[in-house]
């Protein structure tokens, strides 16, 4: 399997954005397309049961997969399969069973494991690795909070301070961890969460990595996140505890937002690659920013944009004149001009020293802002984009493969 120590490229597409919105034939076709396009990675968002707004970052369980992803939700499941799964996943399945549909909930997890295992094996045979996503927090009222109330605090909820994505910050509302309580239990809950993740994915992105150093705590009932304050996180102790049980941790650290030297020091000490985003890299007033191409490092993942960003086309069309002028100059200087400016940004990202380059499927298709996956801070209307059947063509694959090879990212 391709490792993050080699130059490579991938595409981010959540299974809900496949034409049918679930696993099945569309997922296998997408794997075939990735292989034809010279890609090494398929990155997804969290797979848990989403909330009413369809957010996978507020899943009803940090361990269970969503039944809505099943290609065949009525597939027969044997009693022996249910009991074997319950024994193997005993840390969490009983808690999920208690808040979901009892034995049917366990059967659904067996079905998911069956479908997922087949898809992952198919991808592996074609040298495509799967990258997952672990939200740092669990959802309010989730099976996790109900089953382990002693691991969570009261009086404050999770959020993020004001930044480039939101002037009032982000009020997520998730319960905050009682880190001393987790420490007394040797971070067993987090170790099991990562164990489950690595059973499904080759690599995982850990969302809001900076929260392990210090996290933004917002008073319960606040109207937005500006009333929050920083509180101290567990540092590397959690990761040391997990590594002692699981071995090497194949993790990408999402280190976006307000990043301080202690956050960088923790990431570097753990050896985790961080993230840089091309859309943040053309601010004339931020010449030393980490997202500028000249400041990229090899041990990182360069994204054209994440699920929280606009599509490349939408971003380009709304770009401030000074930033657009700088981006156009960078494109000319690098000799990566394409007829469509979003493809020029893809080529620019591919030229980064970052070992892994990730683009969104929407950007391969050149879609505008109506195809954006999420708008941070907006409670409704996100997480709904679906690709049309046959949208990704052989011509798209041929074009992307040529750029991948040109940048030395073809495996």
Q: What is the overall shape?
A: globular
Q: Order of strands across the widest beta sheet?
A: 9-6-3-2-1-12-11-10
Give the H and E element order: EHEHHHEHEEHHEEEHEHEEHHHEHH
**What's the CATH C level?**
Alpha Beta
CATH topology: TIM Barrel
Written overview of the protein:
- The N and C termini lie close together (10 Å).
- The strands form two sheets. Strands 9-6-3-2-1-12-11-10 form an eight-stranded parallel beta sheet.
- Strand 1 (8-12), helix 1 and strand 2 (41-43) form a beta-alpha-beta unit.
- Helix content is 35%, strand content 15%.
- It has helices spanning 25-36, 79-88, 93-99, 103-125, 143-147, 179-184, 188-200, 237-246, 261-270, 312-317, 321-334, 341-350, 361-364, 394-406; strands spanning 8-12, 41-43, 129-134, 152-160, 170-177, 203-206, 214-219, 229-232, 251-253, 274-277, 300-303, 356-360.
- By secondary structure, it is of the alpha/beta class.
- Helix 2 (79-88) packs across helix 4 (103-125), helix 7 (188-200) crosses helix 8 and helix 11 packs across helix 12.
- The model has no long low-confidence stretch (mean pLDDT 94).
- It has one domain: TIM Barrel.
């Amino acid at each position: 399997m391709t490792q993050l120590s080699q130059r490579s490229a991938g595409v981010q597409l959540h299974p809900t954005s496949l034409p049918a919105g679930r696993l099945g034939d569309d997922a296998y076709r997408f794997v075939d397309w990735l292989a034809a396009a010279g890609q090494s990675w398929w990155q997804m968002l969290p797979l848990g049961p989403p909330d009413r707004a369809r957010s996978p970052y507020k899943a009803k369980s940090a361990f269970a997969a969503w039944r809505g992803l099943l290609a065949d939700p009525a597939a027969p499941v044997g009693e022996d399969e249910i009991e074997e799964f319950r024994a193997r996943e005993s840390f969490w399945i009983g808690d999920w069973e208690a808040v979901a549909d009892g034995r049917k909930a366990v059967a659904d997890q067996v079905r998911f494991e069956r479908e997922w295992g087949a898809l992952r094996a198919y991808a592996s045979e074609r040298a495509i690795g799967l990258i997952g996503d672990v939200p740092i927090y669990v959802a309010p009222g989730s099976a996790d909070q109900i089953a382990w109330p002693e691991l969570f605090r009261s009086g404050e909820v999770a959020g993020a301070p004001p930044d480039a994505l939101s002037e009032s910050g982000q009020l997520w509302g998730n319960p905050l961890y009682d880190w001393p309580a987790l420490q007394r239990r040797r971070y067993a809950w987090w170790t099991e969460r990562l164990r489950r993740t690595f059973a499904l994915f080759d690599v995982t992105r850990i969302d809001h990595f900076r929260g392990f150093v210090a996290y933004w705590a917002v008073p319960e009932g606040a109207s937005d996140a500006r009333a929050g304050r920083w509180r101290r996180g567990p540092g590397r102790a959690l990761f040391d505890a997990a590594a002692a049980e699981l071995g090497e941790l194949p993790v990408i650290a999402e280190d976006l937002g307000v990043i301080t030297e202690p956050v960088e020091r923790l990431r570097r000490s753990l050896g985790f690659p961080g993230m840089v985003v091309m859309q943040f890299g053309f601010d004339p007033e931020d010449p030393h920013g980490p997202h500028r191409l000249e400041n990229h490092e090899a041990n990182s993942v360069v994204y054209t944009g994440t699920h929280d960003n606009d599509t490349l086309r939408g971003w380009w069309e709304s770009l401030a004149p000074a930033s657009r002028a700088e981006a156009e100059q960078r494109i000319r200087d690098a000799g990566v001009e394409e007829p469509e400016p979003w493809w020029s940004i893809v080529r620019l990202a591919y030229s980064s020293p970052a070992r892994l380059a990730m683009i969104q499927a929407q950007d391969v298709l050149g879609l505008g802002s109506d195809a954006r996956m999420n708008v941070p801070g907006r409670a409704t209307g996100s997480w709904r984009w679906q690709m049309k059947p046959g949208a990704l063509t052989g011509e798209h694959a041929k074009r992307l493969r040529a750029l991948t090879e040109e940048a030395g990212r073809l495996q």
